[in-house]
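Predict structure. Chain length: 148.
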Amino acid sequence: MERDILINKNGVALVIALIMLLILTFIGISAISTTTFETNITGNERVGTDAFYASEAIFQVGLNQLPDTKPIARTIGEDSHGWSGKPEDKGSPQSLIDLQLYPKAGYDSSWAFNRYQINATGESLGAMREVEVQVSYGPFSASTQYSN
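Prediction complete.
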């Protein structure tokens, strides 16, 4: 009787096929989960990049208006916008910061540069990015010039 059980293997192929099908199903579910997760990461990266570019655009506006230090009002793009100042200054943009004249290496004492700090914030679909840059503007004559 024992020999009859070992010889008759009709159901084994079905059991192996079902186990393989179960394993392939788990692999498919795992691949779908990973793809969904990666898609979310990519979307978040795109939104963050848009916010960064909005803050860079505000920085460029501030750079182009120097030596004027007036605030840059909230500008609105397609999906993003920006303003001068920090993220908490969204409702009331802040002026650019004048850090006064300073000497620069390689120039004698009759020349000076003005230094400014530009804080710019960009927002896109809820993501915010802030850029803080100090720029040197000049040279300016730092001494009084007398004419004879």
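Summary: The chain has a mean pLDDT of 87.
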